[in-house]
């Protein structure tokens, strides 16, 4: 899977800028988004549930009672679906206050207020020493300067967020644990694979989905595990 955007970079730029405008234009009372047959509320400046996370959400596995850390939770959709899969504990973290408000609302809306904790954290900064069976992440795909917190949901200045994620994630993963990671064909797929390998993880493509018939916007889910042994799921 390679970055196939090529001459479509300008088109992707326009599309992402348009979505950022939509995120900022949500009424203060929030907007309901239908996603995989369930309703989620987003408040202004929150990344909307979209096709980007569907390959991960449709295919990631959580055994009943397992613990899950969702990094960059946004509206909380991945964390909520982890609860539906039977997770015993879910910690959803994000640096964006609007995302935390949205994710907290959605945890309660779906009846998982006791299972899903929402916490402000710059990646793992506020996670503490806890380790998890599963780590999920839908980080910004593109190495592009982000000028505000909304742009940061799509663009990663100097690829710092992705680099820091892979440098630190191993400390928060239990032995035998696994990572489910979202990305896109217009993002830095090769760089992500390189970072994961350098951190000692094996990578397998799990699923893909396109947001348009021309497949200019195709989204992937990867499963990653410590190179010492393949995951049981």
From TrEMBL:
It comes from the Bacteria. Residues 53-184 form the Methyltransferase small domain. InterPro entries: Euk-Arch_PrmC-MTase (IPR052190), SAM-dependent_MTases_sf (IPR029063), Small_mtfrase_dom (IPR007848). SUPFAM superfamilies: S-adenosyl-L-methionine-dependent methyltransferases. GO terms for biological process: methylation. Pfam families: MTS. The keyword Cell membrane does not apply. GO terms for molecular function: methyltransferase activity. This is Methyltransferase. Keywords: Methyltransferase, S-adenosyl-L-methionine, Transferase. Signal peptide: none annotated. The keyword Transferase applies. It comes from Janthinobacterium fluminis.
